[in-house]
Amino acid sequence: MRKLLLFLVLAWLAVACSPAGGNESATTPGTDATGGAPEAPAFTFVPATNVAEAAIVREQDWTLGAAEPKITIIEYGDYQ
Fold first, then answer.
1. What pLDDT digit, counting tens, does each position of 47-67 carry?
2. CA atoms of 8 and 3, how far apart (whole Å)
3. pLDDT at residue 31 above 60?
């Protein structure tokens, strides 16, 4: 009885963790639909040159939250 219960739990877990769908076309992330070269970004990144420019939230910046927030927190990072 324990083996049957364990089998059912493992089978349910395998089904629950499997990807949804089944006939989706698999492409490598960062490539176009034909599997060719990665698509170019739609914009050209221009870094800020001073503190005043860095304090302005631009269209190309990653944002999270409301479109017109009461407070804006800008976080800088350097991944080197």
1. 888 888 888 888 778 888 888
2. 9
3. no
For residue 3, the tally of other CB atoms under 10 A from its CB is 7
Cα 34 to chain centroid distance, Å, stands at: 21
Structure tokens at 15: 């089904």
Looking at residue 9, its pLDDT comes to 86
Structure-token pair, residue 23: 């006939």
Q: Cα 47 vs. chain centroid, distance in angstroms?
A: 22
pTM of the predicted structure, to 2 decimals: 0.33
Distance CA 45, CA 2 (A): 59
* pLDDT value for 32: 54
Beta-carbon contacts of 25 under 8 Å, excluding residues fewer than 6 positions away, are 33
Phi-psi region of 70 (alpha: psi -120 to 50; beta: other; left: phi over 0): alpha
